[in-house]
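Morning, I've got a small favour to ask if you have a moment. I've dropped the whole record in just underneath, so have a look.
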Amino acid sequence: MTTGDRPRLLLHTCCAVCSTVALERLSLEHHVTLFYYNPNIHPEAEYRKRLEATQAFAHDQGFVVIEGPYEPEVFAETIRGLEHLGERSDRCRACFAFRLLATAERARAEGHEVFATTLTTSRHKRSADVHAAGRAAAEATGVSYLETDLKKQAGADRCHHLARQHGLYQQNYCGCVHSMRERDARVRRAREAVR
């Protein structure tokens, strides 16, 4: 089912900041609905900050946000045994696969022809890993996955410019408790280096 001549796209979003460029680019050819599904985010207060910023920005721009369930225990089970691995590891790949499969299933349930994700906006994530998870979710559900590398064409810089322009909350770690600890360790090392 299309809306006008534009296919319906369910866009997995991790935060308002990454949504800026994604909506700017993808809404040109798709009727976009945002899907905020991030049970990896820790703590819950951080999850809520990112959700509220996403909802406010989307509402301001005329887009709808669907919130998926917040199930941190399901995320913890998904990455069990991978907790010790760092960013860009199998831990992150399992997280991508988990969230994109949920997005594809939601897209199928609600009649979207295609799904995508904002995860390729970040310079800290390998787009190839994200796309592998998206293709696997597409194969499992029969919903098309739109491969787009949103960090290209200065997308990462553009999203931070738009975030400042719109006064959006900007987080300083990926989201899970493990990435938060890794950020804290980097900050400690940097402080110790200047002493």
